[in-house]
């Protein structure tokens, strides 16, 4: 059997069992084991891995680790996207999906998505897969993904904005929070019969979703979201 030491940096210790944090991890393994397989055996999805070095030399995911090697694993640095980002979220991230859509970010979400659907959508539509399911993100064909650390949606949106440097892509209140379709402006007269009395009295600017016909106006939630936008930017 072979042994190698693994040193995890840049927050990757989050994925380790608490008893393994704060120190190098020694793995015992058979022949012909790739560094990707060994690191994921520690609970670290490959989507979280940036640079890898063995004995100080850069290596790739397919590198076969040898007996006695020192392997350094660094996390992915924040990414500066050159093209508009597109996301797909697993079924446990409904609140995060609402936040992303409220920021105007293209976000697919359904409560009944199955894992194979998420993988297919991510690949076919070039979407970043967001999940807390490590095993899902370890699927070998997934190229773009992020494993959320927090259980709180307010913290999750901050994680995603930091990871993908989304400040330049934020366009608040430009997408439907129900179905993700871009909104269009609509006159007050066109939706007057759908408004509550106080909404008719106090609001003049309205938008509508041409896909699901939901009407939007800048209520009190807008102020709260603008505060979040200001904090994120």
What does this entry look like structurally?
This protein has helices at 35-41, 94-102, 115-124, 134-137, 153-164, 188-191, 197-202, 220-232, and strands at residues 2-8, 25-29, 49-54, 57-58, 70-75, 86-89, 106-109, 128-131, 145-147, 184-186, 206-208, 215-217. Helix 2 (94-102) crosses helix 5. The protein folds into two domains: 2-75, Ubiquitin-like (UB roll), CATH 3.10.20; 78-173. The protein is 28% helix and 21% strand. It is built from eight helices and twelve strands. The model has no long low-confidence stretch (mean pLDDT 93).
Shape: elongated
- State the total count of DSSP E strands: 12
Order of helices and strands: EEHEEEEHEHEHEHEHHEEH
Please give the domain count.
Answer: 2
Structural category: alpha/beta
How far from one another are the termini? 51 Å
What's the alpha carbon Rg, rounded to whole Å? 22 Å
Strands in their spatial order, largest beta sheet: 2-1-5-3-4
Low-confidence stretches: none
Distinct helical segment count? 8
In helices, the fraction of residues equals 25-40%
Most strands sheet = 5 strands, mixed
Beta-strand portion reads 15-25%
Q: Residue-averaged pLDDT, rounded?
A: 93
